[in-house]
Design a protein that fits this description.
This protein is α/β, with parallel strands linked by helices and 337 residues long. The strands form three sheets. Strands 1, 2, 3, 6, 7, 8, 9, 10, 11, 12 and 13 form an eleven-stranded mixed beta sheet that branches. The protein has a two-stranded antiparallel ribbon with strand order 4-5. A hairpin with a 5-residue loop joins strand 4 and strand 5. Keywords: Membrane, Transmembrane, Transmembrane helix. This is Alpha-1,3-mannosyltransferase CMT1. Pfam families: CAP59_mtransfer.
Length: 337
């Protein structure tokens, strides 16, 4: 793995903990890949900073595979269930839970999913109770990750990858319903008829962001999730939680509400890292990497100055998309003032 000054913060003698949570549909299909992710990533930490617990569900194909994961200081906990199916730890064996892998959960729906929302909360709860500021969280959905993904995400208050899907010959940016540029608009234009015909033209109305995207350097966004995200624990210790919409608020998904609340609490350094590109299947992920390039190669010659972001304040208004055919603008902080 390529090392440069941007990763030196991972080597300092400070107790830094990572919480890794993955929402997976078929556990055994992902575990080999997840196992490979831990080894190069956790090499940045000293052993005492790597406490990790993995919670499996009762799927027949998962238990033996979970116990074989090559994770430093790992403890595999027996599953405990609640009425809504959320996987929880049966007991608090370790004060930090770095991974909660839920093979029965599905990808996030368009609005509100109590099970996924509850799982997110359970992942965060232990860290909040520990009251430790030196924590970073990493969430991933059913993406085919790569080894060089994780370290690149640990910057700013929150950073996101770019997730793509192949609906035709070329990849299309996927998380357009949640993601908003620093100008408050969607990443690509969706006309009133709901067509994605303009999906190829990302940031058509914000040339500064488009230029940074084309150069594969990080750029600021108002909101993102994009399949994989990392964020600091600091606002969570101050009470921030995943939530649904307030009464009278634009009906968007929990990830956008989360970003909005980050801004409201002064954590507006939200960035997208275009050198990290993800897809939802092995075959298409390999195709995407050949097209976009691997993260380590894309950042190899980037300097600290290249990656530097001139952080801006929030846009005055943000586009609300309660449906593709129902789009309008609202104050970025509506219901929060």
């Amino acid at each position: 793995m390529h090392h440069d000054r941007r990763f030196l913060l991972l080597m300092v003698p400070v107790v830094i903990f990572l919480l890794l949570a993955a929402s997976l549909y078929l556990g055994s299909d992902h575990l080999t890949l997840i196992s490979g992710l831990h080894v190069p990533f956790l090499s940045h930490w000293q052993p005492e900073n790597q406490p990790e617990s993995i919670t499996s569900s009762s799927l027949p194909d998962s238990d033996a595979t979970f116990t074989s994961l090559p994770v430093p200081s790992s403890t595999v906990l027996p599953p405990a269930r609640v009425d809504n199916g959320t996987v929880l730890t049966a007991e608090k064996i370790r004060p930090y839970i770095d991974s909660i892998l839920d093979p029965e959960s599905t990808a996030l729906p368009r609005l509100g999913c109590p099970r996924v929302n509850s799982t997110r909360y359970d992942v965060l709860r232990n860290m909040s109770e520990a009251n430790d500021n030196h924590v970073d969280y990493y969430f991933a959905l059913d993406l085919r990750n790569c080894r060089d993904l994780l370290p690149r995400l640990l910057d700013a208050d929150m950073t996101c990858a770019l997730d793509w899907t192949y609906v035709g010959r070329d990849p299309t940016f996927y998380d357009v319903w949640v993601a908003r540029g620093i100008n408050g608009d969607s990443f690509f234009n969706i006309p009133p008829n709901g067509s994605w015909d303009y999906a190829w033209n990302l940031f058509w109305n914000h040339p500064q962001t488009k230029a940074r995207l084309d150069s594969n350097v990080p750029f600021q966004a108002f909101a993102c999730w994009n399949g994989a995200t990392a964020f600091t624990a600091a606002p969570l210790l101050d009470g921030l939680r995943f939530r649904n919409v307030h009464k009278g608020e634009c009906a968007q998904g929990e990830p956008q509400m989360f970003c909005k609340d980050l801004w409201h609490r002064g954590f507006g350094k939200i960035a997208v890292v275009p050198a990290v590109n993800l897809e939802y299947s092995d075959e298409k992920a390999e195709k995407l990497k050949k097209l976009k390039g691997f993260t380590s190669d894309l950042v190899r010659h980037q300097t600290e100055e290249d990656a530097k972001i001139e952080w801006a304040g929030p846009p005055e208004k943000v586009k609300c998309m309660e449906g593709w055919q129902n789009q309008f603008w609202r104050p970025w902080n509506e219901t929060l003032t």
